[in-house]
């Protein structure tokens, strides 16, 4: 009961804070304010701008409810990660019964069903590949390449995560990187918590390199009509620079952890070599080797198909004479390879892999988080925040303000929702000549790198946390922040310097 009373008190405090903030922020009738309000009304599907006032007492009350409920879920997650799904469900029940957002809007607009379907399929396929022995095989190859050098091991894991995220996407990358790290942990019998956190940060860092790597990149590319060569010119080099920053700072921050692994590798070196040799002998000429190779072929084809998703969807659209949405097609790619895996595993085992490999609790949390984030957009909370950040009137100020504000908000909000809300502001400021096209890269870098700050900052983070929890490994907020605060802040500073160099030189 004490816990319930404490949570009630916390919510009341959060509501008072939310109400104070929403009351203080008034969206004006200036051009920026009007453009933001028009975008907000369009989001709500209102036909007339006179039917609703974003600054009215009623809307302030509704905005305060939406914001306080979102903050309450974040607070509960920080207090105890295991509470996140239950508290999030409670929050959306309140949202629906208080009519903060209409249920039909939540179903049609709030939830990224493409992502949910993709996650279910990818997690199931990853479980099948694990059963085939693919991840153990790859982890042994990485251990062989590292030659017992812990620095080389960490660098290889990070490089693989960065490269994979760039050519496929952050969600696909993190599922397979986490599987790989878990297998390395089983072989070496080490604590993998810091290594998984590093793998997630590297994945997000790599996802900024190419448009396909992150939903934010795809959104900005199409919304702003940006040339893909321009995107690569400014995003790819920074992704590489920030990976180098991440690697070196992580080696410093994780030095105690690295020393413990180093000692483990020294003490267990012969045992590890024996294990690797035994694994090779065991596979020699056996059905297991053929199964692993078949699994590797499926994995490579899966990565290739995800990378070429847009081209495949375009080709199928021409051949079938119907419009095939690339994002919708992407959601079904994992299921193609689950079907192909039947050649290597019994058909009756498929339900078992779906049941064991998919973290249903975390998927429910994803759905709730989408709803909570959308409620902030629907009620006008994000519009008010965007209006505040648009107050700066020079490019020298606007670039860091957009970068830092999107980064800080992306640490606790769905980063795509943040960028979708801020983009109309950026487009309007760009149309007025107040800032150049680099403001879009400020949003890209802020949204992606800002998501590194917390375990709930991006989809990849939440997927990684849920996958490790399924293996009884708990990633603590304190452990995450210990690594992320230093590395992510440095990455954002490098991004800010990069923006200035690209803009003014």
Features:
single chain; 505 residues; mainly alpha; 25 helices; 79% helix
What is the terminal separation in angstroms? 61 Å
- Average pLDDT rating: 84
As a percent range, the share of helical residues equals: over 70%
Radius of gyration: 23 Å
Overall SS class: mainly alpha
- The percent range for strand residues is under 5%
The DSSP helix count reads 25
Tell me the overall shape.
globular
The counted number of beta strands is 0
Low-confidence stretches: none
Following the backbone from N to C, one meets helices and strands in this order, namely: HHHHHHHHHHHHHHHHHHHHHHHHH
Reported for the largest beta sheet, the result is: none
Protein name: Possible tyrosine transporter P-protein (TC 2.A.45.2.1)
Keywords: Cell membrane, Membrane, Transmembrane, Transmembrane helix, Transport
Domain Citrate transporter-like: 84-443
GO cellular component, one term: plasma membrane
